[in-house]
Amino acid sequence: MSDEKAKTRKNNVNGHKGELAEKLADMNVKIGAPKFNYKDYLRVLKLARKPTREEFKTISKISILGIALIGMLGFIIYVFLTELPKAF
Description:
Transmembrane segments: 62-81
Radius of gyration: 25 Å
Keywords: Cell membrane, Membrane, Protein transport, Translocation, Transmembrane, Transmembrane helix, Transport
Number of domains: 2
Mean pLDDT: 80
Strand content: under 5%
Membrane topology: Single-pass membrane protein
Low-confidence stretches: none
Number of helices: 4
Subcellular location: Cell membrane; Endomembrane system
Structural class: mainly alpha
């Protein structure tokens, strides 16, 4: 590969410039950027709808409950690993 082609490839891997592209080009790894099919995203957005008030309340309650449970679990683990050994 000529020097000019190597520089072009190094600076422009699959049409995306950037530090990661340069590193991948230096390593001769043939990994490209993911390709996006915008038609799939548009189809999902067309099917999406605004949730009703009841759906929103239910989703909010479940989310808050999940966050609280994970927080309590983290606090219990924290107490067992840091504060409990100090007591003995």
